[in-house]
C-alpha cells in the first residue's frame, strides 16, 4: 500500500510533545456530540492533528481523529488514554479545517460532520474474505436436462458462465433476482461458493486516451479552463452553456489537465444513478471509469474506494454530495455539474448545500472549482456579476443542432373533455411524430395515477393517517400511497368515510394516467415510463435508457427524472403536460426552479440533426416563467427574480435559516415553538417569521411548527442562533432542527 507521511500536513503548534507524559489531546469521535473528548497520551505516542486513533468510550473502542491540544478540563482520575494511533495516513489539515467549518456554518455537531468522512465501516481493518459464487461443474454440463430451472435461475447461470466471480449482491443486481434464488442454487449445489479476498480494481483514467473533436467554442472554453488549472490556485469559474452545448466535454479537458499534473479530480453529479450516459462519455474520453462514490455502493467497494482516495490511487472520483468529505490525498480540482440542482441540498442529518460547501473545500485545499449549468442559480449569477466568480460561456448547441421551437397552449381556452389532459395540438403532434418515426417525451412531475381521490357523495378527500397530505393513487399496483412517508393501503372500493360504493373518483393526472391516455390515443406506440416507481434499481434505469437509444420505444413519459442530462438523438418532440406544477406555494425559489426544470426538459428535444419542438401546456401563460421560456429570455427573467429577492432581502441579499419544531404531541410542539418565538433575538437587521404550523403540519405522525430567521448580510446568523438556543431548554420529546440556507419550506 502506498503511504504518505501523515506528519507533513500538520501545523507546527498542533504537534504535541512526545516527551511529556502528561500531554493530553482532544479526540473527535464520529458521533453527534457537541465537541471532542479529552484523552491522555501514554507510552510516548507521538500524535498530531488529523491522526486517526482508537480510544475507549464507555465499554466500547471507537475510532476517532486527533483534533488538537486539549484544555485539560477533565480530572486526572477520570481521564482515559488513547489506545493507539492507527497506521493509516491522517486526515489532511485542510479536511480537518473543512469539517470544523461545515459544523460551524450549519450549526451541527462537529462529530456529526466527521461521521460523513469516517462512515466507512472497517476502513482501517485488514481486508476480510468475502463469499463469491462461480458455476458448479454439474451446472455447466448437465443442468439443462436434469435440474429444474426457472427464468431467474437461467439469468444467474448466464452471468456466472461469463467467467467472473460474483458476490451475492452483484448477482442479485445484475441478474435481477432475489437473494433467496442465489441461496437456493447454492444449497442445491448448482453454483459454487468460495471464500476469498475481493480484488477491487481501481483504474487510472488516461488524460490522453482519446481526443474528442471539440467545436471552436468548446476549444476556447477548454483552453480557458486549462489555464485555470495551470494556475494551481483557488478560483471559482461558472461554465455557463445552453442544453446540448457540450459542457461535459469541456470540463473533461480540465480533468485531463489535472491528471497530467498528477493530482486528483472530484466531480459532483446531482443524481448519479440517473446519468449512465455520463459514464459512457467519460470512458470514451479517458479509457476507463472513474471511482464512483454514493450511499448505495457495497461495503467492500466503499472500503477500498475510501482507501484509494486517501492514498491517491483513485485519481478521479465521481460522486453525490457525500464525496465532498472523502480524505483526498492531493485534490487538484472540483467540478459541480448542474450546480443549480436542489438535489445538492442535504436535508437529513447535517443539512448543507453541497455546491456551497464544495467552494469552501476548494478554498481550503487551494484548488480551482468549476460550476457547470445551463440555467445557473441566482446565487451563482450574482457572484459572477460581482466578479467573485469567473465565467466561461457556451452560447450555442453542439454541431448542427438548433434550439427547439417552443409553443404554448393556454389550457384555460382548451376545451378538453373530462379526464383528457393532453391538448389537441399536443395529441396531433404525438400522432405525426409517431408517423414520421421520431421519438417523443411527455413530462409531468407527478408520480402515480392521480394525486387526489375524492368522494362525490360526502366530499371526503382521502388523506394519509400520519401526514397532512393526500394519498396518491398508484393504479398499476392498486394502491393508495403517501409520498411523504412509507404509508400505503389497498385502493378503496367504498368511501372510507361514508361507505358509499362507487363514489370515489380519481382527480387530476399523474404519469400513469397520462400513459393510459396516450395508449388509447396511439395503441400501437411503444411507451416507456420513467419514474422512481418504475425504475427502482440502477439497472432498470440503464435498461430503459438503452431502449430509448436503440429505438425500442416511441414515447417516454416521466417525472423530473427525464430531465437529467439524457441525450437521445432521435427525440424531437417534448410535451410538458402541466408547466404550472411547482409554481404554487410560498417557496422563494419556486419560479426559478420551475424555469430551470422546464428548460432542462425542453433541452431534450432536437439535440442532433433533426430540429426539436416543445409544447408547453399552462394555465398561466402570462407568468414570468412562461414568458421567459416563450421569448428565450433567461436574462430578463433572472433579473426580475433578482429584483424580487433584493426587495425582500431574501438570500443571497440576506441570510436565512429555518427552525423546525416537531413532536408527536401537538401541544408540546406548540409550547416549544412559542418559547423559541418568545425568546427570539431582535434588532434592526433581524426579522423572525412564525412560529406557525408547517405546510406539512403533520409528517410521519410528528406535529410540525416552523420559524424563519432572516437577517441582513452583515449579521452573523450562526452566532445569533447559537446565543438564542443556549438559553432554551428543549424537552426530550420535542425535536428542533436548524436548517441554515433552507431550500425546503414544507
Ligand atoms: Zn364518502
Ligand atoms: Zn404519510
Give the helix/strand layout:
Blueprint: E1 24-28, E2 37-40, E3 52-57, E4 60-69, E5 84-85, H1 93-106, H2 110-117, E6 129-135, H3 137-146, H4 151-160, H5 168-175, H6 179-187, E7 191-197, H7 216-231, E8 236-241, H8 247-260, E9 264-268, H9 276-286, E10 291-293, H10 299-311, E11 316-319, E12 331-337, E13 345-346, E14 352-353, H11 354-365, E15 369-373, H12 378-385, E16 390-394, E17 405-410, H13 424-435, E18 439-443, E19 452-455, E20 472-474, E21 479-481, E22 488-490, E23 504-507, H14 511-521, E24 527-530, H15 538-549, E25 555-558, E26 571-576, H16 590-602, E27 613-618, H17 624-631, H18 634-647, E28 654-663, H19 666-678, E29 686-699, E30 702-712, H20 717-726, E31 734-740
Parallel strand pairs: 8-15, 8-16, 9-11, 9-12, 10-11, 12-15, 17-27, 18-25, 18-26, 24-25, 26-27
Antiparallel strand pairs: 1-2, 1-4, 3-4, 3-5, 6-7, 13-14, 19-23, 20-21, 21-22, 28-30, 28-31, 29-30
Helix pairs in contact: 1-2, 1-11, 4-5, 7-8, 8-9, 16-17, 17-18
The structure holds zinc ion (2 copies).
One zinc ion (ZN) binds at residues 464, 466-467, 469, 482, 484-485, 487.
How would you sum up this structure, described in words?
With 746 residues, this protein is of the alpha/beta class. It has 5 domains: 6-117, 3-Layer(aba) Sandwich (GIY-YIG endonuclease), CATH 3.40.1440.60; 129-197, Orthogonal Bundle (Arc Repressor Mutant, subunit A); 216-394, Rossmann fold (3-Layer(aba) Sandwich), CATH 3.40.50.300; 405-446 and 509-641, Rossmann fold (3-Layer(aba) Sandwich), CATH 3.40.50; 654-740, Ribosomal protein S10 (Alpha-Beta Plaits, 2-Layer Sandwich), CATH 3.30.70. It is globular and about 85 Å long. The relative contact order is 0.08. The structure holds zinc ion (2 copies). One zinc ion is lined by residues 464, 466-467, 469, 482, 484-485, 487.
